[in-house]
Design brief:
Layout (H helix, E strand, L loop, with lengths): L10 H11 L16 H12 L7 E5 L5 H6 L5 E6 L2 H14 L4 E5 L6 H6 L5 E5 L8 H14 L5 E5 L3 H13 L9
Parallel strand pairs: 1-2, 1-4, 2-3, 4-5
Length: 187
């Protein structure tokens, strides 16, 4: 999205960005478009994984290529990964087949309209979003998504989210500089 303010980018542009990104498993820097910093992704997944108890049913919204969902499947009874981009859903399914992971399934869904997910999947114990809501362009869409998530997770269940915020981004780049790593550019 090349530095354009998210507030002026609409959902069609964001969808197009991710549809384009889904055509290549790795970008020009040999990084996954869904996890530009593999070190940060590892930390985020490890932090989320601590909240997944054995026997839990997990819904991973915005699962992208399914890498996080597949990791979470090691702890959960079942993981349902959903993403808005059909190509990512296919990539996730193929990874699950290739790795022979049986307790994970992937389908297409829109975080702002989870009625169909609720009809197919009994209320999950845990809902996870990792850098999903940030793609919704404005607060109204993000609020709508959070309401949909709240209506989806089991009463007394857990919602775990990890989003990218500019202050966190700035802090991360300062830590990377102290470790001799270059900054992560905003997409």
């Amino acid at each position: 999205m090349d530095g354009i303010e998210a507030s002026i980018i609409g959902l069609p542009e964001i969808k197009q960005y991710w549809e384009n990104a889904s055509t290549c498993p790795f970008d020009e820097a040999s990084l996954r478009p869904t996890a530009r910093d593999p070190h940060l992704q590892e930390v985020v997944e490890a932090a989320v994984e601590k909240w997944i108890w054995p026997g839990a049913q997990v819904l991973d919204i915005g699962c992208g290529d399914g890498t996080s969902s597949l990791r979470f499947a090691n702890r959960a009874e079942i993981v349902h990964g959903v993403d808005f981009i059909p190509r990512y859903v296919e990539m996730a399914r193929e990874s699950a087949r290739r790795l022979n992971v049986k307790n994970v399934e992937f389908s297409r869904a829109d975080v702002m309209s989870l009625e169909e997910v609720r009809a197919r999947i009994p209320q999950p114990d845990i809902v996870v979003t990792i850098r999903c809501l940030i793609n919704l362009a404005n607060w109204e869409n993000q609020e709508r998504a959070v309401r949909q998530i709240a209506a989806t997770v089991k009463r007394g269940g857990l919602y775990v989210l990890s989003e990218g915020w500019s202050d966190g981004w700035d802090g991360l780049n300062k830590l990377r500089a102290r470790c001799g790593l270059g900054p992560i550019e905003l997409v």
